[in-house]
Each structure stands twice: as C-alpha cells, then as structure tokens.
Fold this sequence. Notes:
mainly alpha; Arc Repressor Mutant, subunit A; 2 domains; three-stranded antiparallel sheet; 5 helices; 3 strands; elongated
Amino acid sequence: MTLKIAIDADADVAPYEQLRTQVSEQARSGALPVGYKLPTVRGLAEDLGLAPNTVAKAYRALETDGVIETRGRNGTFIAAAGDAAERRTAAAAAAYAEQAHRLGLTRAAAQSAVEDALRAAYGQ
C-alpha cells in the first residue's frame, strides 16, 4: 500500500486542501491502513512539487482532524481515525440540534440548513 496523491495546480481548491482531502479519504477507506508511515514534510513536498509549508499545513489539519498522528522523530502515521471522526461528527451534530432547538427552528428548518451547508461544503 502506498500513498497516492495527485495535485491539480489548475484546480479551484488549494493544494494543501487537495492533499488533506486525499490523505483523509485514503485513510478512511482503508487504502492507507492505521499505522502507515507517511513521508516527511520535506520529502512529500519535493515529490509533489509543493512548498514544505503547504504540506505542513495539510499535515497540521489532518492531525487536528484525528486522521494522522505525529510521533516526534519517529515520523507521522495514519491514526485510528474512523471512530474519532465519527464521534466528533456526532458531537457536532448534537450541538447543532440543541442550538437549533433553542433558537426555535422547526425540525424541517434545521434539516434544511444542514442540507444547504452540506451542499456548500461538498460543492453540490
């Protein structure tokens, strides 16, 4: 199993976000298994023709999302993120539902707001 990343310089999406999305998708699908060691920031930057700061920004976002974990000098690895991502999503959904209820939104209005946000986030 290897990391497969393709950066489209002409895309509307920033390179760091393309990298973050692709690593996240590969980790969640199992294409990159838990414990898989990722390349160093400098190494991946060189391989992809990106600035090291771009790769570092993507790695920081992935670590914040719980997709990867950095183990100091040992490197950066794919974390057991599926459960963590699902827990964070469930917590965010619960917080949203509570806030919508407090604001007096109907269930339909709250669901409509979520659908609008998902369409905006996923570009659909």
